[in-house]
Write a structure and sequence with these properties.
Blueprint lengths: L9 E5 L6 E6 L17 E7 L3 H12 L5 E7 L8 H13 L6 E7 L1 H13 L6 E5 L2 H7 L4 E6 L2 E8 L4 E5 L8 H18 L1 H8 L18 H11 L2 H30 L11
Parallel strand pairs: 2-9, 3-4, 3-5, 5-6, 6-9
Antiparallel strand pairs: 1-2, 7-8
Helix pairs in contact: 4-5, 5-6, 5-7, 5-8, 7-8
Length: 281
């Protein structure tokens, strides 16, 4: 996939009064980060990533950040949902404290949903709150977990039971990172995309309910082109990852933009009730 085939940068504004922020979607987002006016100011940056993503994109992000921050630190966490724990979270705090980072540090979450959740929660806690930026590298994180400020770690008695609502200052969705996404992870993201059909479009839900993704005839129906991610879903399940990526990267900015307009509305319904959600059914 060449850069020429990727969409130009698009921006979605999440309007939350003083907590408002932009979601930037497009190609070459990591390299162009230094030129963005909305990058949070600070005296240092800490890049939080994992053992899978850091070797792929860590150097590119760090190089861009060095143009904006005097010092750039990094911490690499183990990969996997099973590491979304206090012990792993403390590795972020260890890095911050060992480098004597103050309230002017900015955290960057480079990875999927686990990295985004833990980095956001660390940012909410460290010195009672420091800025952080989401740089999601999976489709699932780009369309779901990086938006809405839901940060947390797991507890042995429940998933995401310890956390906070804490909004990022910026979300950078670089569609080029999907090039290295395994087919299973791509399918997981597409499943989340499909979920937005019944949330925001009942007609799409009724149509989807009567179809099977193994059918190539879906590609000829008008409804499929109302959300090109569904077209990509068919390709993932019935053909090849390469063609799916081509569809995602050709149409991805428009589709992620549409999903980003839905996700904050869903989150806003949850946020005021989160404290009593365990008894409010």
């Amino acid at each position: 996939m060449t850069q020429a085939t990727l969409p130009a940068t698009d921006t979605v504004r999440i309007a939350l009064d003083e907590r408002s922020y932009d979601i930037a979607i497009g190609a070459d987002m990591l390299a162009s980060l230094a030129q963005r006016a909305d990058v949070p100011a600070g005296t240092a940056a800490l890049v939080v990533s994992n053992t899978v993503v850091q070797p792929l994109y860590g150097a590119a992000l760090a190089a861009a950040l060095r143009q904006r921050y005097p010092v750039v630190h990094s911490v690499v966490l183990p990969d996997g949902e099973e590491h979304k724990t206090w012990q792993t979270l403390n590795l972020i705090f260890d890095a911050l404290l060992s480098h004597a980072c103050d309230r002017k540090v900015v955290l960057y979450a480079l990875g999927g949903g686990v990295i985004g959740d833990m980095t956001g929660f660390a940012a909410a806690c460290y010195m009672r709150g420091v800025p952080f930026v989401q740089v999601p590298t999976t489709l699932l994180a780009q369309v779901d977990s990086s938006v809405g400020g839901k940060t947390a770690i797991n507890h042995p008695l429940g998933k995401n039971m310890i956390g906070a609502f804490y909004q990022p200052r910026l979300v950078l969705c670089d569609l080029a990172t999907l090039d290295t996404l395994p087919a299973r992870e791509l399918a997981a993201g597409l499943a989340e995309v499909i979920k937005y059909g019944p949330i925001a479009d009942m007609q799409l839900f009724v149509w989807r309910h009567s179809k099977h993704f193994s059918s190539w005839s879906m590609l000829d129906e008008p409804h499929i082109y109302r959300d090109n991610y569904l077209q990509a879903a068919v390709t993932v399940l019935a053909h090849s990852k390469e063609q799916a990526l081509e569809l995602l990267q050709r149409n991805g900015a428009w589709n992620i933009e549409e999903l980003m307009r839905i996700e904050p509305e869903v989150i806003s319904l949850d946020e005021p009730r989160i404290v009593i959600s365990h008894v409010d059914f």
